[in-house]
Amino acid sequence: MKVEFLNLSKGISSIKSEIKEKIDNVIDNTSFILGKEVEVFEKNFAEYSGFSHFIGCANGTDALEIAVQSLELSEGDEIIVQGNTYIATCLSVVNNKLNLVLCDIDKDTNMISIDDIENKITNKTKAIIVVHLYGLVPDMDKIESICEKNKLTLIEDCAQAHGAKWKGKPVGSFGKLACFSFYPGKNLGAFGDAGGIGTNDDFLKDKIQKIKNLGCKIKYHHEVIGRNSRMDTIQAVVLDTKLRFLESNNAKRRQNAQIYMDNLQDIDNICLPYVHSESLPVFHLFVIMTDYRDELQKYLGENGITTLIHYPISISETDAFKPSNFTNVDNCITNSGRILSLPMYPELEESEILYVCKHINNFFLKKNLLKIKNIQTQQKSGVLHCVNNVQFDVKRFFYIDSFEDSDNKRGLHANTNCDEVLIIIDGSMRMKLTTKDGNTTEQVFERNQLCYVGRNVWLEFEPIDASTIIMVMANETLEKTISEYDFNKFLEE
């Protein structure tokens, strides 16, 4: 099996004909720049995102730079930015001739450090750009409080967080300015570059509209120093069409993320994405952290799984910013060597995610880092029963995932010196256990259920459907496991 990191064509196929028709209309009316369709999308996206105004522009980088420019800060003023963001966030500061101050992150959550924000504030600090990195949301209550206390402008970089929420409120609606990218791979992606800025401030709205349109509201009447950063009409019709499906696509991303969470939670050396209980994430990316990142990425690639790194170099370590005097961003530097982005998009199949998880678990099993935690069992002399979790010393680990032959019965043996735990990864199976006194118990196990099989118990099981996948873990190696394969001998002994 091959698992792509991202497949844009799958997300487009269902709406291709509708988009083609709308693009044809744009071609017919020739309103390629700032057509009426741009205004329609701006209005719809503003309503969706919870602010009064949304101004489209050429790309997400321009959105950030124009947003900062609209504040009219003085040269030498400081803006705090978390150090693990994409370079565009930082360029918005330095390209406006302001001083960039990098803030560290929390090592375990990969989110901006609230404590370090306060440590970095000086009398020159004028604003904070908080990044909703990977589609996750930091504690906006605390960040808002810091901004209010220190009279700082809050700018939200929402390039990866279309539709994410904090306490039910959309991200982008907390700060004075919210910046979005509609790069094709984003949760809401165009067929090229596009971006935009959201605000509830009427004055800033008018100013941003002038800046992105060469400094003028009326053609040739240039009121401010601006730039050419207008959203083209074709991107607007694409985005407005795809906006209708953003909520359902984000929900599918959360479902996919949960499958990853459920199947990777027992690995000691993996840190899964941190999701604050008050937030609704949208998982633009699913990023894990591990000290074995490079080895794991190579292993997954050898098994047909494409992964990426967002981002492999901390901003403070790039050549562009290396001369800068950034302090106390150690966690940003450390985590840049630990992060790995797994395949994530709405159309990703559950079987593909399970395939990725299977190989990640296998990788860490070989490193002796896979633990089944918190096993709670009550041995009842071979009586079949479910367990929720397991405290289990895994010495052997394998999958059974091919049940296409005519005789699907498996097991047909008893282990005399080994315990096993069977986990139903997909599908369902019928389990039959027999003790030495001839007592037999049968039970059906569904997906995500675990079954504990003790020693000196005859094991026999069969899948209910051909797609069933079973993961088996044993607390003894194959070489040292003693098994009986003759049922009559098993009963006699």
Overall description:
This protein has helices at residues 8-13, 16-29, 36-49, 60-70, 87-94, 114-120, 140-150, 202-212, 233-243, 246-264, 293-302, 330-336, 350-366, 487-492; strands at 53-57, 78-82, 99-103, 125-131, 153-157, 165-166, 169-170, 177-181, 195-199, 216-218, 221-222, 279-280, 286-289, 339-342, 386-387, 396-400, 410-415, 420-426, 428-434, 440-446, 450-453, 458-463, 469-474, 483-484. Helix 2 runs antiparallel to helix 9. It is elongated and about 100 Å long. The chain contains 14 helices and 24 strands. The two termini are 45 Å apart. The protein has 493 residues and is an alpha+beta fold. Strand 10 and strand 11 form a beta hairpin. It folds into three domains: 8-245, 3-Layer(aba) Sandwich (Aspartate Aminotransferase, domain 2); 248-361, Aspartate Aminotransferase, domain 1 (Alpha-Beta Complex); 386-492, Jelly Rolls. Helix content is 31%, strand content 22%.
Count the beta strands: 24
Amount of helix: 25-40%
Structural domain count: 3
Radius of gyration: 28 Å
Low-confidence stretches: 372-390
Secondary-structure-derived class: alpha+beta
Distance, first to last CA:
45 Å
Sheet with the most strands?
A: 7 strands, mixed
Query: CATH class of the largest domain, please?
Result: Alpha Beta
- What name does the CATH topology of the largest domain carry? Aspartate Aminotransferase, domain 2
Strand content: 15-25%
Shape: elongated
**CATH level-4 homologous superfamily of the largest domain:** Type I PLP-dependent aspartate aminotransferase-like (Major domain)
